[in-house]
Amino acid sequence: MAFIEGKQEQGVVMAPLCDIYTGPIADWYDDWLSERKEDIAYYVEVFRGRSGSALELACGTGRLLLPLAQSGVAIEGLDSAPDMLAILRKKAALLGLDDIRLYEQPMQEFAIPKKFDSIFIAGGTFQLLIPYEHALACLRCAHQHLQDDGSLLIDVFVPWDDIQSGSSSSYRVVRDSTRADGSRGIVLERFEIDIPAQVTKGIYRYEFYKDSRLADCFVKDLWVRWYWKDEFVNLLTAAGFSNVQTLTDSSLYQEWHVYVFRAHK
User: Fold this and answer.
1) Is residue 258 classed as helix, strand or coil in its secondary structure?
2) Does residue 10 surpass a pLDDT of 70?
3) Is 260 helix (H, G, I), strand (E, B) or coil?
4) For 50-61, how does the pLDDT look when each residue is reduced to its tens digit (9 = 90+)?
5) Architecture of domain 161-224
6) Does domain 36-158+228-264 have CATH number 3.40.190.10?
7) Dist CA 84 CA 34 (whole Å)
8) Which of 48, 139, 217, 263 gives a 20 to 30 Å CA spacing to 250?
9) So what's the pLDDT on residue 166?
């Protein structure tokens, strides 16, 4: 089963994205990404000293949102996964930030009764929206929720290593974390590449150990769509944005691998 919001493809019913980031996956999410700091540093620097309100789409457990809030950004968050938002709320309360507004809505059809100076989608999360119409709907929603002089900031990636290999029929470990109590969470991945659709069709096996014994194990699918640079600029333009900039000076930017865009309303 591929996790595409509310879609059916090739006779297979697709579950909502919120159904994958649940239970132990949500619980271990921060552990698995604990060493990823470069995007946190980038977004904190981007928003440093900027006034106005900000909204993070697909904010998850607050890995980016909370450091931004701590730096003084007037930020709110949106995500479709209730388990991820529950973790974010607990973390925010521990930091004395429990007044942050959070919205449990899908990013391709959200409605908030206010507009923001900045909206951003980080970490390639936007690429979990596989159908073109969902991707376009998300960007149009963002456009509608911006102030007249507001802007959207978004980064996307191209999985070149996977594209070149074509597929992986056997599992490989992509995440492996051990907690202080000895419990361990492992993510293994195998995938197929659909070049015409520009989609990586990932199959993920999650293993959770306690006292060195396997306590839980399950498999879920997750697809990711990639975009070429000019293609994404055209998508932003189709959503109504103007003055679309490719931020080649961004610390995240890697030509042909990671693109960072700022689009103005």
Assistant:
1) strand
2) no
3) strand
4) 889 999 999 999
5) Single Sheet (2.20)
6) no
7) 15
8) 139
9) 86
Pairing label, strands 167-178, 184-194: antiparallel
- Domain pair 36-158+228-264 / 161-224, same fold: no
The answer to whether 199 and 225 are in contact (CB under 8 A) is yes
Query: Residue 38 belongs to what H/E stretch?
Result: helix 38-47
| Closest of 147, 162, 130 to residue 227, by C-alpha | 130
Is the per-residue pLDDT at 11 higher than 50? no
Instruction: Give the integer Cα–Cα distance in Å for 188 and 176.
Output: 9
What is the domain partition of the chain in residue ranges? 36-158+228-264, 161-224
pLDDT tier at 3, thresholds 50, 70, 90: very low
Instruction: Look at residue 15 in the predicted model and tell me its pLDDT.
Output: 59
Give the rounded percent of residues in the chain with a pLDDT score beyond 70: 94
Q: What is the Cα–Cα distance from 180 to 5, expressed in whole angstroms?
A: 36
pTM over 0.90: yes
Query: Rounded CA gap, 127 and 198, in Å?
Result: 11
